[in-house]
Structure formats: C-alpha cells, structure tokens
UniProtKB/TrEMBL annotation:
InterPro entries: 4pyrrol_Mease, 4pyrrol_Methylase_sf, 4pyrrole_Mease_sub1. It holds the Pfam family TP_methylase. Residues 18-226 form the Tetrapyrrole methylase domain. This is Tetrapyrrole methylase domain-containing protein. Gene3D superfamilies: Cobalt-precorrin-4 Transmethylase, Domain 1.
Amino acid sequence: MNTPHLATSKNDTCRGSLACVGMGMTLGSHLTPLARSHIEQADVVFAALSNGVVEMWLERMHPDVRSLQPYYKPGKSRMKTYREWVQVMMTEVRAGKRVCGVFYGHPGIFAWSPHKVIEVARAEGFEAHMEPGISAEDCLYADLGIDPGRFGCQHFEASQLLFYERRIDPAGYLVLWQVALTGDWSLGRLETGPAYRQVLVELLNRDYPLDHELIIYRGATLPIEKPCVRRIALRDLPHVPLTAEETVVLPPATPLKPNSVIRDRLNALDKLYGTSTLA
Ligand SMILES: C[S@@+](CC[C@H](N)C(=O)[O-])C[C@H]1O[C@@H](n2cnc3c(N)ncnc32)[C@H](O)[C@@H]1O
C-alpha cells in the first residue's frame, strides 16, 4: 500500500522531532496511512501496545522498535512508569532523532504519556504531533450499536468517579474505563476486586436501580477474535470476572426530560424573529 509522505526537510532530520501515533485496536486493520508513515520515517520507534503479537507486527515496519512494556513492574506505580516513558522518548528527541511513539488505540484517549511528552517536547522547542487512532471507544460505538449523539454520553475513569464528586446523568449513556482497577490509589495494582467494585455499585445505585442492565465490552485486538459483549445486572458487577481490557457501559435509565423553561424562551425567540430565520 502506498503511504503518504510527510514533508520533512534535511534540517528537520537532525533537529529532533516527535510524533505520537495510534495503532488502533485491531491488529492489521486499524493503522492509518499517516500513522504508518510516521512510523516508517522515524529514526527510533517506541511501542506501548496491547500485546506481543501487535509488537511483532510493528517490528516488521521498522528496524528499531523499542518496547515500553518492560518499564511496568508489579507493585510499581504506573505514573512512575509513564514518567519514565516520557524521559526515554525525550532523550532521543533531544539527541536529534525523529521519534515515533506508538500506542494502542488512540494515543490521546485515557493515555497520560503521549499528551505529556508532546507538551514537554513543544516546551523545549521541538516539533511534536499527535496522530489519532481508532480507540476502544470507537469500536464500542460500532460493536454495540450506540450513537453517543442520541442521548448524550459521559465517560469516566472508574476510580475518578469514586475519588471525586461527579454528576452522573442517567438519561444518557455512561461509559466507565479501567473498571478492573476501581479504587486503586496506588496505581500499582493490576486489579482491585469485588469489595472495591461493590463501592462503585453503591455509588451508581444512587442513579440506577440494582437490576439495571449494564454491558461489559471487550473489542477485538486480533483479527481472528470477535468482540466480547456480556450483559449483567448492576448488582452483579462485583462478582463477575473482569479484565483490564474491558470497558463497562450503562445504557440510559431514565427518559430525557423536556426543559420547559428553555423551550418557552426559544418559542418566544421564534415568535420574535420568525421561525424561517432558524431554518
Ligand atoms: C489506559 S486505557 C487505554 C485506552 C486506549 N488509549 C484507547 O484508545 O482505547 C485502558 C482502558 O481502555 C479500555 N480498553 C482497552 N482495551 C480494550 C478493548 N480491547 N476493548 C474494550 N475496552 C478496552 C479499558 O477500559 C481499559 O481499562
């Protein structure tokens, strides 16, 4: 396949630059031509991908792919790991290399390091760019047949929903990320467990009945896989097995409530200006 070539001058090549690109979710089918071009034109590629097979596929595109996975360690705060990722990428940018960071899904969705390393690179005067990818969110809309524009859609990281006072709107969709890690202050655990998820259930029960059906979703990461969709009652969330690659969706629990005050104001405006002006 022909890939578009990015404009680079000779000066750019020794100046150091950064691109953070998304690999998409499913191996082989989600990588955009622009993301591929960034990978192929880089001097060094760093990879934070969903599994080793995807990393092997990336290695066929570039001779110098460095995995970021070994920076994870049991019990080590993920924030420490993510700061180290920023440092290793910036070391190469400062050395004058064209650096490409490849992240699974979209590099800017529920991902700290790509945003941070771009901010640091730009602050130091380097060219830095984020190239979007197909995220778990995109796959979820397609696989579950959800249009976020129909009733509105809120997204929260599950722990953040517990740690802070947030306002849930049960008339729209609610998408919860990293539910397997619910309530982990340490950022060092790979899962928390039923007691932590029970706290989440009790918080959600303020806005949803315990028998409200929620969806546990895992999109395909390999082309041979199918999306995994499980439907359970809210009360059962603590007791089902849950992996780090799953996202939880709560469909709306209440109908949209008309806002009569605002409708009256808009009707008055229609009368004043004539409805044809709004057409
Ligand atoms: C650190 S975030 C990374 C998201 C990624 N940057 C993206 O664009 O989708 C990890 C969370 O993404 C979601 N996730 C990751 N892989 C998934 C998959 N295959 N299917 C559904 N959700 C997934 C889960 O909620 C998981 O806890």
